[in-house]
């Protein structure tokens, strides 16, 4: 279940639109149409195996029964189901998920929902809701029982990649090469792993200091640019000019950061990823990023500056809406940020020209660099 602090802020971000996966929203009124059609998806999927459907179904159910205790431990049960109902539910839902995944790759699986782009998009979004998941090992077991019979030597993670790309919050391509099924809880956790840093042992840091907005940093001489070749999708880095220059336009520092895509559905994806981070023991890199971008954005002017710099791609239309969305993401959320020390540790140094005519203090603080010129007497303090 999503933490109540996040759920109370945006209940609709955690409710499926058209399809229920797992037990938590199975009885919601708005998912009943597809609930009644899941049998058709399961039969169509099994039809491609050229094996007796009853035998295939029996094998799938047996797989689920063997893991029943593990499955039950995954949920806070709000309704009562016996083992038989749970097994049938999970097999049906796993088949629905696999059928949808395969529709991205094979025309034969597009027929049941072809021509309804809105439905397909809604299903895609529903598959990454925290409260709309089934254990991924069940999906993998059903995949092995059914799909591997007609598409052998195929990776389930590889098949899911196009769906993850459709849900990607950033312009940089996501990479699933290092994701292991054995370390995967559910589909949402796969998307989460796509943004995970290469290492997790980043020291914590005190965030009590004030961080300035994008407009303030721009006025102080900081440039913003997309991080074009990041080793980590969410990576940020500060680029300093090698030699301080008398001409201000040639000596500006640059903050390179991931180009974030903001659309009508970005908020619920962020909220579910953050809810996942806050509800279990895992890296808090999405919550950390939301904290960092919130520090940069105070209002629509900050959004406009980031849009002009192409580190924010606005598909919502209104800069004010984007600012409100970003500012609301971290409301009532407390956590210890997990950002690389190189972006957190405040450092300062002075660059002096001969005769001490110019002095530029340089400060790096949570990925934001303040470039101050004594020449124009513009000073920002952190």
Automatic annotation (TrEMBL):
It comes from Tagetes erecta (African marigold). InterPro entries: DUF247_pln. It holds the Pfam family DUF247. This is Uncharacterized protein. It comes from the Eukaryota.
């Amino acid at each position: 279940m999503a933490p109540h602090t996040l759920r109370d802020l945006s209940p609709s971000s955690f409710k499926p639109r058209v399809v229920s996966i797992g037990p938590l929203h199975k009885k919601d009124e708005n998912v009943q149409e597809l609930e009644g059609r899941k049998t058709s998806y399961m039969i169509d999927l099994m039809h491609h195996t050229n094996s007796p459907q009853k035998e295939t179904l029996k094998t799938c159910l047996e797989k689920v029964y063997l893991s029943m205790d593990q499955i039950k431990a995954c949920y806070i049960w709000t309704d009562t189901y016996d083992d038989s109902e749970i097994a049938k539910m999970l097999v049906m839902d796993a088949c629905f998920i696999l059928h949808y995944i395969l529709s991205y790759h094979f025309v034969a699986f597009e027929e049941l929902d072809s021509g309804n782009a809105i439905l397909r998009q809604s299903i895609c979004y529903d598959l990454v809701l925290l409260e709309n998941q089934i254990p991924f090992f069940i999906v993998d077991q059903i995949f092995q029982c059914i799909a591997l019979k007609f598409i052998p030597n195929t990776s389930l993670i590889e098949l899911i990649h196009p769906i993850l790309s459709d849900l990607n919050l950033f312009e940089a391509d996501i990479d699933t090469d290092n994701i292991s099924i054995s370390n995967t809880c559910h589909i949402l956790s796969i998307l989460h792993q796509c943004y995970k840093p290469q290492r997790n042992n980043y020291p914590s840091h005190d965030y009590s200091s004030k961080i300035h907005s994008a407009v303030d940093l721009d006025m102080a001489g900081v440039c913003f640019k997309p991080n074009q070749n990041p080793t980590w999708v969410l990576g940020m880095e500060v680029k300093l000019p090698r030699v301080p220059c008398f001409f201000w336009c040639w000596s500006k520092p640059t903050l390179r950061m991931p180009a974030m895509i903001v659309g009508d559905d970005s908020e619920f994806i962020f909220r579910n990823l953050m809810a996942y981070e806050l509800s279990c023991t895992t890296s808090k890199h999405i919550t950390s990023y939301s904290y960092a971008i919130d520090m940069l954005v105070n209002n629509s002017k900050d959004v406009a500056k980031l849009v002009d710099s192409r580190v924010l791609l606005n598909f919502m239309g209104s800069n004010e809406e984007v600012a409100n969305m970003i500012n609301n993401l971290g409301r009532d959320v407390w956590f210890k940020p997990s950002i690389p020390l190189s972006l957190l540790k405040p450092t300062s140094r002075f660059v002096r020209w001969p005769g001490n005519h110019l002095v530029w203090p340089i400060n790096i603080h949570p990925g934001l660099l303040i470039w101050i010129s004594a020449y124009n007497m513009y000073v920002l303090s952190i």
